[in-house]
């Protein structure tokens, strides 16, 4: 079934030409020398005033990176990246701001334009508090502002740029950094380990439900720079946190590299909800420019009954190479992955997830919707595996894709590996078989097969998306309202 | 990664020297591009798990040493081997018997070939330069496949079966492959089946061999199905317990044509069956099913590629794997829908029953779609037999093993059901029952 007109119009409305965040901020920047060497690694480490062990850690990663080869298994093609022609560090020249008033007004204006609230809105007495979000704003290689720090620290929550955390809580960072994504994990993660600049560090103490949503907003601004952020979130026993991530970049003719690493650790009974609206500049309709997005995201459900949930709305980037994963190590732990990936123009998306079941009674769910239009290629690549000891592991996977026009491609590459009999894995790509019961219920009430399917799948996704703050929600809502009509596996 | 070179394994080195010494015996006028095929193989080597298409079936590790190509056995040896072969024995069919990969004319019904069908032994065709040889390797993707290329390089014997346009052949041809010997040996056979326009034809393949001998069969069946022709294929693998059995079937489908192929696997310490479908003409249909029943540490791999290149193709693939003991099942399926192949309808399914905790199943059902008006789907499930169903049967007084057997039979039966030839279907069901009995 071809896509309906309504769907086509909606996709067009979020078309590349409409990229709203393509402006550039002109401010004085300080950069490392072009290229990558041990000196550049030392320079970055010194800039961040890091402890000695951190520098060694970075150098070790750098030396290993030199021996590694760029992976070529993903279904993306691009010109070879010249790693020696990039700036690995770029920061606004003005000295670090202590309060919001000291931040370069140009940067403030930038975030205002992007709709990111950097001012903490005072809550007046007697008036219902607005929904509040603490923001860490990362501009190229440094964090320029982090809001609501005081209020969060009252609850014991640590939320700060990772470079600051390295100075203030070195032991805590050292205990967890690189334990989920090891230094040698893959080419891009190793590169990130060597040169990562900023990113957020979050620690939620035992039993604390984080009083507000935390978010980081990444902005690439400077030309020829790469952004290498590193995020580390630790949810201690019985805690809960919802974290959001947004990203944009100026429109430019050349490609820029973004290689981030995100590590999540959930201890006993803890829950982490990680949501992303990825809207890097996708390049123009001819495929010129755009961000190369090579990201390693992984969550470790280390404790029993822990839960990690990934939600992603992917609309940007010229190339996306991203597989947010869950290692379900703790007994009864749970992993979720909800994704909507829209590709247009000449974009190439190779994204999916890994659910690695190691503990007993672990369960996971994967819901992925890929929509390709223009001349784009959209691939879902996923792994579900149950270890021998993962008794009663459960997985349900559903991936749908929709093609708009006959110039694009939609691909599905699932790996399903089961190593014990009590594990039950179901993988389906046909929309009509979501749940017979639910379908029957809806159809009994007069909904068509398709309406019922859309309702059920959207219900799944919407659940999570509705928890995004308003700034991100508008775009995401637009996407999920896209009809499922004409879906193919 | 491109520039990492594996050291050549002992088996690879040996294959090179075997090819070198076999070279002189190949007829010079034959139209088989052995040199090219072997060059490709030498460049890639035996695929290890680093090669994506062999991720779960590591041939480099499984083939420690390459066995010497088997010589044509004496008639007495062949007779003795065939007398022990029982698969499809009860079916009224025209038999072509291959022992150790060589066609044994005396044990074949070459003089009883049904009207409308021509059978030419491959060796005869090669020495005469039969024009039909041009139709070998009808699916382009096999050029990238080391198993297929190895078969081409070492091709020893086989047959060309050609069915006239419009002919409806009632009696099936039974290709009976038997392996026998004291020590390891390898075989490479190729059968080409061509169907003229509107023809209808069935053939059966059975593969049996001696237990305890590490032989290495590599069998290829190429089929070229003209417009509106209809081909039925039933295959049974009962290779010996030490065999590393490699097999491939290719099909090039003309407009409105149809293929139905079922493969039932029991044997081989390792078996890999590859299916290549190329939908060249419009509105062609294919039903490809497979079932594997594995025990005793075996590995069975079914790898399928359905390439829809024309409008309105329909493909249905269903694979069932039953795993007992520490065995491994592998299913890799890929449906490609090219830009021109609008209105394609492709459904692929792989289900697995794990009877013990030691078994494992690897599924990789892939879709690659470039057309926007298609309905494609795939499903994969994996798990132990349903407790509720077992309980239902046991509550009616059946002991657990019998209840489980019934469930397994029903599970596998779904894949066998599509065999149109009644005798062949019953024979396969009998084989399944036999396996369940010995399992006890």
Automatic annotation (TrEMBL), chain A:
<comment type="similarity">
    <text>Belongs to the iron-sulfur cluster assembly SufBD family.</text>
</comment>
<dbReference type="InterPro" id="IPR000825">
    <property type="entry name" value="SUF_FeS_clus_asmbl_SufBD_core"/>
</dbReference>
<dbReference type="GO" id="GO:0016226">
    <property type="term" value="P:iron-sulfur cluster assembly"/>
</dbReference>
<dbReference type="InterPro" id="IPR045595">
    <property type="entry name" value="SufBD_N"/>
</dbReference>
<feature type="domain" description="SUF system FeS cluster assembly SufBD core">
    <location>
        <begin position="218"/>
        <end position="460"/>
    </location>
</feature>
<dbReference type="InterPro" id="IPR037284">
    <property type="entry name" value="SUF_FeS_clus_asmbl_SufBD_sf"/>
</dbReference>
<dbReference type="InterPro" id="IPR055346">
    <property type="entry name" value="Fe-S_cluster_assembly_SufBD"/>
</dbReference>
<dbReference type="InterPro" id="IPR010231">
    <property type="entry name" value="SUF_FeS_clus_asmbl_SufB"/>
</dbReference>
<protein>
    <submittedName>
        <fullName>Fe-S cluster assembly protein SufB</fullName>
    </submittedName>
</protein>
<feature type="domain" description="SUF system FeS cluster assembly SufBD N-terminal">
    <location>
        <begin position="147"/>
        <end position="209"/>
    </location>
</feature>
<dbReference type="Pfam" id="PF19295">
    <property type="entry name" value="SufBD_N"/>
</dbReference>
<dbReference type="Pfam" id="PF01458">
    <property type="entry name" value="SUFBD_core"/>
</dbReference>
From TrEMBL, chain B:
<dbReference type="InterPro" id="IPR045595">
    <property type="entry name" value="SufBD_N"/>
</dbReference>
<feature type="domain" description="SUF system FeS cluster assembly SufBD core">
    <location>
        <begin position="185"/>
        <end position="411"/>
    </location>
</feature>
<dbReference type="Pfam" id="PF19295">
    <property type="entry name" value="SufBD_N"/>
</dbReference>
<dbReference type="InterPro" id="IPR037284">
    <property type="entry name" value="SUF_FeS_clus_asmbl_SufBD_sf"/>
</dbReference>
<feature type="domain" description="SUF system FeS cluster assembly SufBD N-terminal">
    <location>
        <begin position="12"/>
        <end position="174"/>
    </location>
</feature>
<dbReference type="Pfam" id="PF01458">
    <property type="entry name" value="SUFBD_core"/>
</dbReference>
<dbReference type="InterPro" id="IPR055346">
    <property type="entry name" value="Fe-S_cluster_assembly_SufBD"/>
</dbReference>
<comment type="similarity">
    <text>Belongs to the iron-sulfur cluster assembly SufBD family.</text>
</comment>
<dbReference type="GO" id="GO:0016226">
    <property type="term" value="P:iron-sulfur cluster assembly"/>
</dbReference>
<protein>
    <submittedName>
        <fullName>Fe-S cluster assembly protein SufD</fullName>
    </submittedName>
</protein>
<dbReference type="InterPro" id="IPR000825">
    <property type="entry name" value="SUF_FeS_clus_asmbl_SufBD_core"/>
</dbReference>
């Amino acid at each position: 079934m071809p896509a309906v007109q309504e769907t086509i119009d909606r996709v067009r409305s979020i078309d590349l030409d409409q990229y709203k965040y393509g402006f550039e901020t002109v401010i004085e920047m300080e950069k490392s020398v072009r290229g990558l060497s041990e000196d550049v690694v030392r320079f970055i480490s010194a800039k961040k005033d890091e402890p000695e062990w951190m520098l060694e850690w970075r150098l070790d990663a750098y030396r290993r990176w030199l021996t590694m080869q760029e992976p070529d298994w993903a279904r993306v093609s691009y010109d070879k990246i010249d790693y020696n022609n990039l700036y690995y560090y770029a920061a606004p020249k003005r000295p670090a701001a202590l309060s919001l008033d000291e931040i370069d007004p140009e940067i403030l204006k930038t975030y205002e334009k992007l709709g990111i609230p950097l001012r903490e809105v005072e809550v007046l007495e007697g008036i219902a508090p607005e929904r509040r979000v603490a923001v860490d704003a990362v501009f190229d290689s440094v964090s320029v502002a982090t809001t609501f720090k005081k209020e969060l620290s009252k609850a014991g929550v640590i939320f700060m740029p990772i470079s600051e955390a390295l100075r203030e809580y070195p032991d805590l960072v050292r205990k967890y950094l690189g334990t989920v994504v090891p230094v040698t994990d893959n080419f891009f993660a190793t590169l990130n380990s060597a040169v990562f600049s900023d990113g957020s560090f979050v620690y939620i103490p035992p039993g604390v439900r984080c009083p507000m949503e935390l978010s980081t907003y990444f902005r690439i601004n400077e030309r020829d720079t790469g952004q290498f952020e590193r995020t580390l979130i630790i949810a201690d026993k019985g805690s809960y946190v919802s974290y959001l991530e947004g990203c944009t970049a100026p429109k430019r003719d050349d490609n820029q590299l973004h290689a981030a690493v995100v590590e999540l650790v959930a201890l006993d009974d803890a829950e982490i909800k990680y949501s992303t609206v990825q809207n890097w500049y996708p390049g123009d309709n001819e495929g010129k420019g755009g961000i190369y997005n090579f990201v390693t995201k992984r969550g470790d459900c280390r404790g029993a009954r822990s839960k990690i949930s990934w939600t992603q709305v992917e609309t940007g980037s010229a190339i996306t190479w991203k597989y947010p994963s869950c290692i379900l190590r703790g007994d009864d732990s749970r992993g979720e992955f909800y994704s909507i990936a829209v590709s247009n123009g000449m974009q190439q998306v190779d994204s999916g997830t890994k659910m690695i079941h190691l503990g007993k009674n672990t369960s996971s769910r994967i819901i992925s919707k890929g929509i390709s239009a223009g001349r784009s290629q959209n691939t879902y690549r996923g792994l579900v595996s149950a270890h021998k000891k993962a008794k009663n592991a459960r997985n349900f996977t559903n991936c749908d894709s929709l093609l708009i026009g006959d110039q694009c491609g939609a691909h599905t590459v699932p790996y399903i590996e089961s190593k014990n009999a009590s594990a039950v894995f179901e993988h389906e790509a046909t929309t009509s078989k979501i749940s017979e019961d639910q379908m029957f219920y809806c159809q009994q009430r007069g909904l068509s097969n398709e309406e019922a399917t859309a309702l059920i799948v959207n219900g799944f996704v919407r659940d999570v998306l509705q928890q995004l703050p308003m700034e991100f929600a508008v775009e995401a809502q637009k996407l999920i309202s896209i009809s499922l009509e004409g879906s193919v596996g | 990664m491109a520039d990492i070179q594996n050291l050549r394994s002992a088996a690879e080195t040996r294959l090179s020297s075997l090819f070198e010494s076999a070279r002189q015996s190949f007829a010079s006028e034959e139209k088989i591009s052995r040199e090219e095929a072997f060059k490709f193989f030498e460049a890639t080597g035996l695929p290890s798990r680093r090669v994506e298409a062999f991720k779960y079936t590591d041939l480099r590790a499984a083939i420690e040493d390459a066995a010497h190509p088997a010589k044509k056995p004496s008639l007495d040896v062949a007779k003795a081997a065939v007398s022990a072969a029982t698969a499809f024995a009860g079916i009224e069919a025209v038999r072509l018997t291959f022992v150790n990969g060589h066609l044994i004319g005396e044990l074949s019904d070459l003089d009883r070939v049904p009207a409308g069908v021509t059978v030419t032994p491959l060796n005869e065709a090669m020495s005469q330069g039969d024009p039909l040889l041009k139709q070998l390797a009808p699916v382009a993707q096999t050029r990238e496949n080391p198993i297929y290329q190895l078969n081409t390089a070492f091709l020893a014997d086989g047959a060309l079966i050609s069915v006239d346009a419009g002919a409806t052949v009632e009696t099936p041809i039974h290709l009976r492959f038997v392996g026998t010997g004291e020590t390891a040996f390898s075989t490479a056979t190729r059968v080409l089946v061509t169907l003229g326009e509107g023809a209808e034809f069935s053939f059966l393949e059975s593969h049996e061999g001696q237990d305890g001998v590490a032989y290495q069969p590599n069998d290829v069946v190429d089929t070229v199905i003209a417009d509106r022709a209809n081909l039925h294929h039933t295959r049974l693998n009962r290779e010996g317990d030490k065999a590393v059995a490699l097999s491939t079937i290719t099909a090039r489908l003309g407009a409105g044509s149809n293929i139905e192929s079922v493969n039932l696997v029991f044997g081989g310490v390792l078996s890999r069956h590859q299916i290549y479908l190329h939908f060249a003409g419009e509105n062609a249909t294919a039903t490809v099913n497979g079932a594997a029943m594995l025990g005793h540490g075996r590995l069975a791999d079914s790898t399928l590629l359905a390439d829809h290149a024309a409008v309105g193709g329909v493909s249905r693939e269903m694979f069932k794997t039953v795993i007992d003991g520490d065995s491994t099942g592998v299913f890799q399926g890929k449906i490609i829908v090219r830009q021109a192949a609008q209105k394609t309808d492709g459904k692929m399914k792989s289900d697995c029953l794990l009877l013990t905790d030691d078994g494992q199943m690897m599924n990789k059902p892939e879709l690659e779609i470039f057309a926007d008006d298609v309905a494609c789907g795939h499903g994969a499930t994996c798990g132990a037999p349903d407790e509720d169903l077992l309980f239902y049967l046991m509550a009616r007084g059946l002991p657990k093993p019998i209840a489980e057997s019934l469930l397994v039979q029903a599970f596998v039966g779904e894949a066998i059901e599509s065999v149109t030839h009644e005798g062949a279907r019953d024979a396969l069901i009998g084989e399944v029952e036999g396996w369940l009995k010995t399992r006890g």
